[in-house]
From TrEMBL, chains A, B:
It comes from the Bacteria. It comes from Splendidivirga corallicola. This is Crp/Fnr family transcriptional regulator. InterPro entries: cNMP-bd_dom_sf (IPR018490), RmlC-like_jellyroll (IPR014710).
Length: 191, 191
DNA sequence: AGTTTTTCTTTACATATGTAAATGACTTTT
DNA sequence: AAAAGTCATTTACATATGTAAAGAAAAACT
């Protein structure tokens, strides 16, 4: 719980009263590797704070092909955010890549606290803004960098993770096939 | 100005007092076709509400290649948002594709109003969330749709615009070369 | 109207990446 | 230890898309 409070206050400071109310809606939970936190087609209602472990968010095409759009490492929040905001059915999957310790809360209960504590609304705004910035960075990377450069950036952004998850998940995150990632790796190891 | 107030209230209702303070920081402005609202390397400080006209936001690679990441049509806000949020140098360009009527405000002055009017902070949160959702949709489209499908979606999302801006801007928005867009158009016109 | 500039299309070629299938290396399970 | 399963690499081939350049068409300008 301290990890959560620390994270929140680093995004945007909140009062002690807000801390108490906010912490109170979270419950400890665990996710085992391959467990889903969110799946396609459901109406999402919860958010979670990741204390340990790794997860991925991905889409699946009609033909069943998966595309890893985000990799989550702690400390961070996870949620089927678009679905929570729009109240539409969820389009994405969120799945644990390793066992995770999380703190889970109901999204509606969290957002109800915004009325009571302006500082929490501000925190939420800043968090949302940071999500936007992260997405924009990722967008720039996908468009402006080659697959090889994205691979290098993945290694930098997620140190050590490469050895803990299958390579096809990394390939999918980079937007290439495992075959292509294998070619890239070969290329890098040669000279 | 009514257009702006209508837009804001549709995102998240604000009080009359907030309306007055908010409107007060905006000034009418014009952009002529090809004018830049934001350019790479500067520290951004302003936001604008677009009343009429069209704009594009784009990146430029080291080799000078451009990639249109967003097309703006009214009513909407434009800003080098990531730069405003992070206070880092701006990475993107925003340029008018057609003459535009805009309402311009200083970002800092706008955000200072959040302290005074909680409803404006909420509006800002919801706006930020909607940007996030839009970005996610775009991301899904880029990854899951073919260039041909994205072209169809462009025509649907921006009716009539195709006839008013050069095709290479559309190609860039779709993530393909003008050559490839030309091939796609030919393909579509054949059967 | 004629000239210049801009834009779109087409061609030929190069290249990156995908697909599918086979192989080999590791793990895990029994 | 053997068997089964998972994963990474490799091969051969197909394909989409990029690059560069030329030509055609359209628009803008004088």
């Amino acid at each position: 719980m301290e990890q959560l409070i620390k994270y929140v206050n680093e995004v945007s400071p909140i009062t002690k009263e807000a801390e108490d109310d906010f912490l109170n809606i979270f419950r400890k939970g665990k996710l085992t590797r391959n467990d889903y936190f969110a799946t396609y087609g459901e109406y999402s209602s919860k958010i979670a704070f990741v204390c340990s472990g790794t997860l991925r968010a991905f889409y699946r095409s009609k033909k069943g092909q998966e595309y890893n759009k985000t990799i989550f490492i702690p400390p961070c929040f996870i949620a089927a955010y678009s679905s929570l905001i729009t109240r539409n059915k969820n389009q994405i999957y969120i799945q644990a890549l390793e066992d995770c310790e999380v703190l889970i809360a109901n999204y509606t209960r969290a957002s109800e606290l915004y009325d009571k504590h302006h500082c929490l609304e501000r925190f939420s705004r800043k968090l949302s803004e940071s999500f936007f910035v992260a997405k924009e960075h990722r967008e720039i990377d996908i468009v402006l960098l080659s697959a090889t450069e994205r691979y290098a950036k993945f290694q930098k952004d997620f140190p050590g993770l490469e050895q803990r998850i299958p390579q096809y998940h990394i390939a999918s995150y980079l937007g290439v096939t495992p075959t292509q990632l294998s070619r890239i790796r070969k290329e890098l190891s040669l000279p």
